[in-house]
Every structure is written in C-alpha cells, then in structure tokens.
Amino acid sequence: MHSDNNRNMFMAIALSMGVLLAWQILYVGPKVREEQRRQEQAELLRQQQQRESGVAPGAVTPGIEAPGAASAPGSETLAPPLAPGLAASPRETAIAATPRVAIDTPGIRGTINLKGARIDDIVLKRYKETTDRESPSVTFFSPAGTPRPYYAEYGWAPAGGEKVAVPGRDTVWTAAGGTLTQNSPITLTWDNGAGLVFRRVISIDENYLFKVRQEVTNTTGAPVALAPYGLISRHGTPAVEGLWILHEGPIGVIGEEGYTYLTYSEVLDERLKTYTGSGGWLGITDKYWAATLIPDQGAKYTARFTGRDASTTQFYQADYLLDPITVAPGQTATSESRLFAGAKRVHLIEGYQESEKIEKFELLIDWGWFYFITKPLFYVIDYLYKLLGNFGVAILAVTVLVKLLFFPLANKSYVSMSKMKNLQPEMVRIQERFKDDKVKQQQAIMELYRKEKVNPMSGCLPVLVQIPVFFALYKVLYISIEMRHAPFFGWIQDLSAKDPTTIFNLFGLLPFGVPDILVIGVWPVIMGITMWLQMQLNPAPADPIQQKIFAWMPLLFTFMLAPFAAGLVIYWTWNNILSVLQQYVIMRRQGVKIELWDNLKGSFSWLKRSGKPADGA
Questions:
Q1: Interatomic CA distance for residues 13 and 21, integer angstroms
Q2: Contact call for residues 377 and 468 (beta carbons, < 8 A)
Q3: Coil, helix or strand for 234?
Q4: Hey, what's the torsion of the CAs at 536, 540, 541, 545, to 10 degrees?
Q5: Cα 518 from chain centroid (whole Å)
Q6: Three-state secondary-structure class, residue 523
C-alpha cells in the first residue's frame, strides 16, 4: 500500500497551517506582548504622575490645554508631553467642556469642536462594539484630553516667513447652519482682527465622507501667502493584532511614491517620513475603520507621517501641506479637500474612488498579494449573501461552486485513488516479495502504476487547489467589515470569530469556563470527524508509523483550526462532506470495497445484538 498520495496531500495542508501557526507563535505573539508591555508601563507611569501631583484620575486642571495638541505641518514639534498634574477626562466630560456643533447622519453621530474647529467626536451608528444588540455603538473619534484622542483638523500655515494671525487649536469659531447632516452643511467663521476673514464650509454625505472647503478673504492692503493643510492626530498606540495578513497603522497613496504603509513602531523609530506629489490620500487605518485625508487631487503637496514616544503615551500624525496660495488684497482664496472617517465597506470605498476620482482609494482595503483571488471571492460571497440573506449560507454555496469548478480534476483524482485502493493487495504482495530490497520494491510498484495507468500524485491535487481558496477565504473573513458580526445559525453569531463553544465543558452544559487554548468548539469537532471520514476512504499508508501519524491527523487539525474564524471552519467542514460524498460515489462506481461502511454497519449490528436480552432470560 503506497503512501505517496496521503503523505503529499496532508503534508501540503500541514505545511500551510504550520506557517500560520509558526508566524503567530514566533513573531506575532512576542510582538503583541511587547506592545502590551509598553502600554502597561505607560499606564503605570501615568498613574504614578497622577498620585505624585495629587490630582485624582479623571480630573482636569483649569487653564491647562489638553495634552497632545496637534501641530501644523512644517512645525518642529509634534505634540507636547503630558502636562504635570493633568489626567485624561471621561469622553463625555471632555465633549461637554467646549462649544460644539452636532453631526447627525444615517452613518454617524457626533460633534465638531468649535474650539480649533476639530472634527473630534464620531460614533459609528451602524456598528456595535459586540454582537449584543444592546451594546454601545463603535466610538471612532475622541477629543484631546480623553484617554484615546483621535481627530482631524484643517487650517492655514503662514508661508514665506510672514507673521500672520491664523486660526489654531485655541481659536473659537462662530458657527452658522445648525446641525451638520447629509442635507445641511455648516459654515464656521473667524476674523483675525487684522484684515483676514477665515471661513470653513463642512458638508457630509449619508455615510462617512466629509467635504471641507476652506476660504480666506484678504481685506488688508497687501498680499498674503498662506498654505492650506490637513492633519489626523492619534494619541496612544491602539491595540493591533499584528498579523501579517493585515496592515494596521499609517497608510497612503502619495504621488509618485505610490502605495505607502508603515507600522506604528516604524513611525516611532523614524519619527518623520516625508513625501511629495499630487493626487492620492493618506491617513491611519485600523482593521475595520480608517481616517484618511484626501487633498485636492490636482494640487501639489508635501505629506508626512510623524510619531513621538513621550513618557506616558505615543503620538502619531498624518498630515499634508499644500503649496502656498497668495491672496491679493480684496480677493478670496479657496482650498477644498475631503476626509473619510468610518467603516471600510468594500462597495463604499470603491464608489468613492469612482465618484470622487480619488487615486487608488481601493487600496485602503488590504486585499493582499493574492488580491486576484481574494477580491473576486469576496464579490461572489457578497453576491450570494444578497441572494440568500446569510453570509454563512453564502459560504456554503461558494464551497459548492468551487467543487463544481474543480469537479473534473477531483473526479480524475478520485478515480486514480480508487484504482490505487484496488491495487493495494497486489502492492502488499510486492512489498512482501521485496521486503529486503527497497529499490526493487519501489521499481515494482512504479511498474504496477504504469501498467494500470495510475498516477500516485493525483490524489493531492484537489487539496493543493483548495489551499489558495482556503487562504483567500481566511483573508476575506478576517479583513472585510461585511463579515464582522455576521451570524450563521445557532450559537455562531459572528462568522469572523472562532466558534465560542468548547468540548471541555460539554459545549456549555457544564457551568465553568476553560482557558482560551482549550476552546475547541462544535464546528472544529465536526470538521475533525469529517476529515477522519475522508481519510478512511483514501489508500492507507503501508508504513505503521505513517499510519499512526495519519490516524492522529484529524485530531491535530481539530486543535489547529479551532482558533480560526468559524466561517473558515464551516467552509472546511462542508468541503470535507462534499468530498466524502463525491469520493464515495466514484469508488462505488469503480467497484472498490469501502471497509468504512462495513465497519460502521458491523458496529451498529453489534450494538443492536448487545441490547437484546440473552436466551432464557
């Protein structure tokens, strides 16, 4: 009984899965733990400073500006360190401390801070923190002075060394227009008292795209040169999963530089990365959300990614500075730009790229190197979801389509495997005849293959073909927000998360929890069973050691796949079931005796006999 078929098939899977696990254990784990350690040390230091200053947590010292105020592009400093005695305020307290204009659209709610005209309060109405419908909506932007400030700011920087009073972080603007909605923009105004009047018209669509038109009117007797800028500032390093499959951090498409991305640690190490060009965009991306600045696509600008690690936290900034505009006396200069701040929905991002003519905006979603597989797979799943109403069912349907696509290849493979199974008695005789001469044994087996027209390598082809689909589906489930909190049936309420049940407390019947490493859910167990069934149909290895290895393979893969997204495990399980049915039908047509079913029938017959009363009882 030759083992090449099984060995190649399962080694291909094991190698692929092993790469993922090794990366997690050897690289991602230490990286994430180091980041957590750094954040914990920063928090301890912050608390120590609070105790030494005598300021209670949550208190704000009057008259002291919130820490980490952003700097205009071109300035030497990024963000001042935490002021002594100043602690972060609760988000609601910080928002209530300054005058604001409300934002209310179908996609977001929030406010614009009239002090500095910052867009610093955004809550994503369509998305919850957890799968619980009563959980709060996702908080995206937060103002300075809160535990995790994150905001966007626009303004003008004096050019040519001129000393001109321009609006800054302390400027209090006057608002006209009421609440900002998708149908009603607002206008902010500030007069510097020296002949320059600044206006800012902000509008928003029903989703997450702001349009910002900055105007400055020169009523002085001399020309004034000013350069428009925009920035996104983030304080504190967010918790990132650190997987190679997804980028989180500074990102952009900037002029001739093209697609650019940096990790948070790279920004802190290099402190400043500068690019020049026109067109494109830049910002900061999370797994599901992003904040990006989109300058006028025809204007030249200088873009920067800056970072600084202070004693208590880290500061990151993405900004651009347009070429200066000279405003003649009596004239008004205008600069228009856009801000995307919200969920990275695929069709929405691509729609903005098309309608707003944003260069390569689609790259905001990280489809990876194999985008030519990943992206079409998402479209197919999304299309089927719209037809079937459930992403889990759509994944099952995609599995069927993939099986149909490779049906001829799988059929040829299973026919070859069936012939090999029929040849097993003859192969055993060859092995016994040449048991002391492995070379002649292999030669005789290969001659048998040629005579019977059997390809021993054909059995691994269906699995090898499935591996790219497996990785593509893994990517789709992991990165696309459409899959976030997407339910299946029963206990699976999030296809992008692992099966939450575990066999070690009888899937929730016993009233205790187990360590995360022991969370082996229902679907991974079913996957292991279907894998075992499929292995029973394959030709068994002749080597006793290999037999033992393959006997434990389903259990090994049950543990390996347990931490993966439930949607991925469901796909693999359903694929196994379809493969078993297809292989069973072909083997029956080839006249192969299937011992598995005979053994199962025998077991059931034994159970029936054992349940009958003995004679004379």
A1: 12
A2: no
A3: strand
A4: 50
A5: 24
A6: helix
The strand pairing partners of 211, in sequence order, are 203, 338
- Which one-letter amino acid corresponds to residue 17? M
Closest alpha carbon to 331 in 194, 164, 192, 196: 196
Distance of CA 56 to the CA centre of its chain: 37
Query: What is the token pair recorded at 132?
Result: 């619980």
Q: Beta strands 150-158 and 100-104: pairing type?
A: unpaired
Are 178 and 293 a contacting pair, CB within 8 Å? no
CA–CA distance from 378 to each of 421, 477, 479, 502 (Å)? Answer: 38, 9, 10, 29
To the nearest 5 percent, what fractions of the chain are helix, strand and coil?
Answer: 40, 25, 35
What is the identity of the amino acid at 431? Answer: Q
CA 175 to chain centre: 38
Quick: pLDDT tens for 82-117: 343 445 568 999 999 999 999 999 999 999 999 999
Distance CA 546, CA 8 (A): 12
CA distance 284 to 448: 62
- Do 98 and 197 touch, CB atoms closer than 8 A? no
User: What's CA 105's distance to the chain center, in Å?
Assistant: 25
Residue 66: both structure tokens together:
């919130």
Instruction: Give residues with Cβ within 8 angstroms of 207, minimum separation 6.
Output: 105, 106, 107, 342, 348
Residues 231 and 118: their CA atoms lie apart, in Å, by 10
* C-alpha to C-alpha distance for 278 and 322, rounded to whole angstroms: 9
Q: Please, which residues have CB within 8 angstroms of residue 462's CB and are 6 or more apart in sequence?
A: 406, 409, 410, 413, 414, 579
Distance (Å, rounded) from C-alpha 323 to C-alpha 131? Answer: 46
Whole-model pTM? Answer: 0.79
Q: Which tens digit of pLDDT belongs to each residue from 351-389?
A: 999 999 999 999 999 998 888 899 999 999 999 999 999
Summarised one tens digit per residue, pLDDT across range 398-415 is 999 988 888 887 777 777
Give every CB contact of residue 457 below 8 A, 6+ residues apart in sequence.
Answer: 4, 5, 8
- The CA distance from 51 to 42, in Å, is 14
From the list 382, 381, 336, 340, the residue with the least C-alpha distance to 362 is 340
